[in-house]
Amino acid sequence: MRFYIILLLSTMLLSSISFSQTYGYDKEYQKQLEESGVEINDRQKEQVRKDINKWANFYLDKHYKYNEKALLTHPISKEKKTFNFDCSGYVAAVYWTSNIAVFEKQAILDTGGVKTIYATLSKYNKIYRDVLPNIGDIIMFDKTTSNDKKLTHAGIVIDVDEEDETITYIHASTSRGLVVGYMNLKYPDLDKKDGKIINSRLKRGGGINSLASHCFNSYGTILDIPKQ
Description:
The chain is 25% helix and 24% strand. It is an alpha+beta fold. It has a six-stranded antiparallel β-sheet with strand order 5-12-6-7-8-9. Strands 1-2 form a two-stranded antiparallel ribbon.
């Protein structure tokens, strides 16, 4: 099965373009894709990233507490869906509101949410590690709940500093709710550099092992993997 993104045309939105995944929550979209799937161009991909970034920040500004349940209204279809704002639930909510139906099982949001995200994107060869991410991509971590557990946390990339390679992401913290986090693999043992936070702490206990850089697993994307 090829990795497609279906282009949805709406008479109500003549000036904008919306997208949905082949394996998303909407079975009608899946059927349309099977009949006439289309891949999107670079301009449309850029719009997808802008939409993800917009909604990621929108929910951040709502100050949702960790695991808070919220009934959301889709901005285009007006469909209503309930999400729990844990880490994977936040990712699912942002993508759903951006009209990207990626993680159908994520609507339930059990403790395996991050593993669901990873498995889904891995199936389409959309996981990467050794290059800076793009805005709108998903960042995934290990060992945030236990030193022997993988894929325990996730967030959404909202900025990339190409000069010092600090990644800024939004995620759901168990103690603070939705917050901004930072990761820098160029300086993995530092939490600050020149007074700037470059690696957030993602688990209790302190030390360098609690830094985002030491918990990092991979990035995932619904679009193109960045070129090295």
